[in-house]
Amino acid sequence: MITESTLRALLDGDAAPCAMPDVLLLREYLQRGLPYGDPICLSFGETWDRVPPALAARLAETPVGSHGYQLSLYGLPRLRAALREHIAAGNGLTGGDWEVAVSWGGTRQSMFDFGRMVKDRTTSSRPVVLAAGPSWDYSGVFSPLGFTVRYLPLRPEHGFQPQREDLAAAVAKVLATPGEHLAMVIINAQHNPTAVNWSEQFVSAMVDTAVEHDAAILVDDAYFGVCDAGVTATSALRAVIERAPLVPWLGVRSMGKQFGCNGWAIGSMVAAPAVLSELVNRYRLHHGLMHAGPAQHAMAEWLESSDSADFLTRQSFELADTRQATVQACVEQLGHPRSAVHAGECTPYVLIEVPPAYEPEQYRADCFERTGVLVAPVWPWPYPGPESGATPLPYLRLYIAAGEKDVLEATRRMAEAGLTYR
């Protein structure tokens, strides 16, 4: 949970906070005097206090020269080498035509630059981006660039596993719409927010669809390294490298999601060398120079050490235990049928069905008003319109990375407030 001191440091002052509804609710809760104690944020993909101490300590050990501009738009060479090894080992890459650059402005910024490049290469007035939904906020990135964002549905009756017939139907709808063409396919194989590890067969089908229609491919690997113990993450990156060498593609990876340091905005961009050169030397140069040296040095040292691998191993076991505890608490304390709790096996999310007596937003508002527990709708803010194929679902997303203690405290508060399934 976020402590009062941290909350005040982030929200006190005259400047208006972020317009995100969760932030406004937290500010109001702070003004109310935290009636139920520190808020428990199961809505944000953030913990604020889970960075490994050994990683944070490395910030104090960076050389003086790291505080100036870096001299490569690809990022610190040492970190690039560490990222390349990390990505190759995790994805089982033994060859292929690909290169890596450091991202130091967050994966959202890298996606935006890729969207600009794809848009500049298209002649259609209505290029379409296709993703699986519910999803992360792809519309917020690509709609301002002039793309139409459409979704193929992920259905509870299929355990939120994507279906090839839904992919075919979504593509057919784009092709049947005058003036539209499929410009980009987004693959998020460790899926946010459904926590489903997509099958290799479906990932291959998405890659082949992009190739068939000469569409670009975005591999959103934000949570590739965040899976339960014993789960082998499906490598969308390997499928793209092997099956789609001729279409433009980009893979983005967040180190913040893996290592609890989202605020560093350190990650990777992976693409064919020519595409990566254009992104780094042209599009990124439009808005940023070569900075974040201390964070890059610290991350390089961390990835080179056995500490990082040990941390990921421990995290995988902790995540599996917390997921199991979350399901058990929802069933035993909140009275959810087991079928109304979708556990998944990757990412730090669990989905629960909204109690039948509530609308999702009503339940979410009542929950925070009466307990200080903040949960999220399965479609995160800002919510896409129905014309995109964004099917409304009576589910909530619980972010469980804060750990078992916080999840159990949250469900205890909810049960005591009578916010149960029946």
Tell me the number of helical segments per DSSP (H or I, 4 or more residues long).
15
Structural class: alpha/beta
Contiguous uncertain segments of 5+ residues: none
Strand runs, count:
13
The shape is globular
- Strands of the largest sheet, in order across it? 2-8-7-6-5-3-4
What is the N-to-C succession of helices and strands? Answer: HHEHHEHEHEHEHEHEHEHHHEEHEEEH
Q: Into which percent range does the helicity of residues fall? A: 40-55%
Sheet having the most strands: 7 strands, mixed
* Strand content range: 5-15%
Keywords: Aminotransferase, Transferase
GO molecular function: transaminase activity
Cofactor: pyridoxal 5'-phosphate
Organism: Allokutzneria multivorans
Task: Summarize the structure in words.
It is a single chain. With 422 residues, the chain is an alpha/beta fold. The protein is 41% helix and 14% strand. It is built from 15 helices and 13 strands. It has helices at residues 4-11, 21-31, 53-57, 77-91, 107-120, 138-142, 164-176, 200-212, 236-243, 255-259, 273-283, 293-304, 306-332, 360-371, 404-416, and strands at 40-41, 99-103, 126-133, 148-153, 180-187, 216-220, 249-254, 267-271, 341-342, 349-353, 373-374, 376-377, 395-399. A seven-stranded mixed beta sheet has the order 2-8-7-6-5-3-4, with helices on both faces. The protein has a four-stranded antiparallel beta sheet with strand order 9-10-13-12, covered by helices on one side. Strands 1-11 form a two-stranded parallel sheet. A hairpin with a 6-residue loop joins β9 and β10. α4 (77-91) packs across α12 and α13 runs parallel beside α15. It is globular. It starts with a helix and ends in a 6-residue tail after the last helix. The mean pLDDT is 94.
